[in-house]
Write a structure and sequence with these properties.
Radius of gyration: 35 Å
Number of helices: 15
Number of strands: 11
Helix content: 40-55%
Largest sheet: 5 strands, antiparallel
Order of helices and strands: HHHHHHHHHHHHEEEEEHHEHEEEEE
Structural class: alpha+beta
Strand order of the largest sheet: 1-4-5-11-6
Strand content: 5-15%
Length: 530
Amino acid sequence: GAALVQHTVPEARQALQRLATAPSLAPEWQAEVDGNLRVLQAARTPATQQLLQTLAGAIAEQAAKANTPAQVQRAAAMVALGLQHVPASKPLLAQRDRLAALQAQAQAQLAAESSAAEVDSRINSLKRAAAAHDIGKAEESLARIRSLQPDHPFLKQDGPQLLAEAYLGEARSLVENGKYKLAADTLAKGVQTLGQRTDLRNARARMVFVADVMRTRGRPVGTDDIQRLRERLASLDKSDRQGLDDLQDTLKVRGALPEGSFAKWLDGLKPSVATTQPASTLPAASAAPTAPVVEEPTAAPRAGAPTAAAPTPAAPTAAPATPIAQADPCARSGLAGRGRVCADHVGTGFGPALVVIPAGAGKAFAMSRTEITMHDFNEFCSATHQCAAKGGSGSLPVDDIGLAQAKAYTAWLTQVTGYTYRLPTDAEWLRAAKAGQDWNQAPDSNCIPPSAGADGGVGGPIAARGRQPNPWGLVNMTGNVWEWVVSGGQVMVRGGSYNNYWSECTVATQRGDNGSAQKDVGFRVLRELK
């Protein structure tokens, strides 16, 4: 602003008298008052003292009207100016205390609002992390909520439940890939983190048991060991029958429990006749939850396959392993259009879970039930050394890779299984997605919901097994990540992603694509039937 006019003492008194009759929170008013008060510093006559008291009263009266945060801030500066010249003014001191209390209240409210906003954001992050089985992010979000609002109701039940679901979901993914020891270790960490929750404790007991059972395949087992396994099975059947049944069903559809049940598995074991062997290394049923888990078991061998140990993955320049002949697991009756899964053997484990799409306008084929996951893709990278393993939760859909790498993955599956894998054509993808009845969208698609604002696109991918399937058992056909389809020389993506609004998350949504690596584009595979 313009420079203040330098007044004489009489002029300064006259100016202050005028200013005292019309006090204002404006910075210009305060600047003019301050300039004139400086002129009177050396003229502390009784008349000046009386003028200062009048001015202090005017300032206090104006400050008393301030209530909004902006007004309070200016009023506090105004009162501070008055107290520099009239430090004992009771009206000014009273207003100073009132304004300080209002400022503290506003700061506390701002902090509370900021905390509440962050808690809401962290709750949403925790929900996404739990759905994606991302234990690290779920734990981080829960810890932050505890630090911000230790008494928040979410921490009593919902928060720990979501973190437990992240542990349980990751363990399920590991089991589906034959990683029983890792599943047990994961659940042991969950018990350590969340305490003796029944769901985690029971799930860990199941994982330790199945790891020990799988360890018996092809190995001599003592009579006492078999009896202990029977006792543990009876205990699980009594305390956690539903969980045991679900686990057996999972292993059956993956081909890892050809006997159909653990009881039949144990019935088929032949006790070792040796009597000089050392004591069993199988843990007893009463083993403590923190006891070490037994070594990783191998998956069940295929029918007619040799029992020798599988060779280690060949280097890129080595000749590919010849797939062992076996009955087509996806050719069994009762699979087409039922949502039931089948899978091909890949090394000592299994490839992606498949569902069979019935013949219609074209031949029947199998398609991966979910998008190809980080775990699926990392198995390819480890076996071929053609790519670097992707970080993050293994159950998330793989993304941010190029189309060439996706095709290389299908070529590898073709090589190691003996069945033809490839990316689906647009027509094949649509036929599978619509499920013979013009199905259009999953009601819980992972995309921006209709209630979101303009900045709603802040989500991310979730676990590939995380949402409601279509009528033929395919999961995440709408939302989550776009999926490549290749028809001749034309490349497109279909289905939308977590970055798309609800109206765009449909089977019909598609766009052209150049096959470059993108953070919201993934793929699923088609497997031809012989």
